[in-house]
Specification:
single chain; alpha/beta; TIM Barrel; 2 domains; six-stranded parallel beta sheet; 7 helices; 6 strands
């Protein structure tokens, strides 16, 4: 196995397999060799930001569950970015939880599944995504509520208009080139509906901006 201390070297080794230029090993990436498979570095710290900048890679930040260092990491990444053979300028991707429904009330109900799962995690009892509840009252203490709201502050929860406004504000705050959408919604149909509303929100955001913002789920 490899430790975190060797991650930068491991990443560069992975790049070399995809480039198809290695001659010092019998290991071949099939069918990846020579395809120049694009690499994106996902992280939640300033370490990953510096590494992505130094290697000239697109940088995705896991702000949907670890927002504490988001702005510091993005500032470091943009400041220290070195152009590479694959990327001429910084490319920032931010993670956003999107819990959208036809009403704000239903969206907040769907969001409780993610809140309950995170609550179980911080209590030391990780498990499957629970079904939603009508209210989180009685499930968390005031301290736990504050901790969870802080941890999920890069989430957009609500109807189309509410979600659009929240995502628009996130994009303004981060100058993101792209947004990764996460939706921990237990019901499959409700999750698909949430993605449909998110897609419409991004279409409306792009229509109002001079530069389009990509998104993926």
């Amino acid at each position: 196995g490899s430790s975190g201390d060797t991650f930068p070297q491991d990443l560069q080794e992975l790049q070399s397999y995809f480039s198809g230029t290695r001659s010092d090993t019998d290991v071949k990436a099939v069918p990846g060799a020579g395809l120049s498979v694009p690499l994106y570095l996902l992280g939640s710290s300033d370490f990953s930001a510096r590494l992505a900048a130094g290697l000239g890679l697109p940088f995705a930040f896991a702000s949907h569950f670890a927002p504490e260092y988001l702005h510091v990491a993005l500032e470091l990444y943009r400041r220290d970015f070195k152009p590479s053979a694959t990327l001429a300028q910084p490319h920032v991707i931010v993670g956003a939880g999107v819990y959208a429904a036809d009403s704000d009330a239903e969206a907040h109900r769907l969001f409780t599944s993610a809140q309950l799962m995170t609550l179980n995690l911080i209590r030391g009892h990780p498990g499957e995504l629970p079904p939603p509840v009508d209210s989180m009252e009685g499930y968390w203490s005031p301290m736990e509520e504050r901790a969870l709201r802080q941890r999920t502050r890069y989430s957009a929860v609500g109807s189309l208009q509410t979600v659009r406004q929240r995502l628009d504000a996130m994009i303004d705050a981060t100058a993101a080139d792209e947004v990764i959408v996460v939706a921990q919604i237990q019901d499959h149909a409700a999750r698909l509906r949430s993605f449909e509303i998110a897609a419409q929100a991004f279409r409306e955001i792009d229509a109002a901006r001079s530069t389009a913002v990509s998104w993926r789920a």
